[in-house]
Write a structure and sequence with these properties.
single chain, DNA polymerase, domain 1, mainly alpha
Length: about 90
Amino acid sequence: MPHDLAGLPNLGAKSCAMLLAAGIRSADDLHRLGSVASYLQVKRQGGNASLNLLWALEGAISGLHWQEVAREHRTSLLLALEDCERMAGAAKGE
């Protein structure tokens, strides 16, 4: 049974609404996609997502507070984000 997004730590009503608009409807969807891919899916849907959403998504998956994620995992997440964006650009022929 899919778990409700609103029950995850770090995710408020606006974050949940952005995820739902991007087709991420459950905690299971979020876990399957991962924080970086979920963040990019929100951005592609035109969501007004700052990097704070990325930290919150990673925290929702890992159980860490988003501020701890931002402090301790920022570099690895930014590198993963850059890699995903580069691969998406290469797939489009950019």
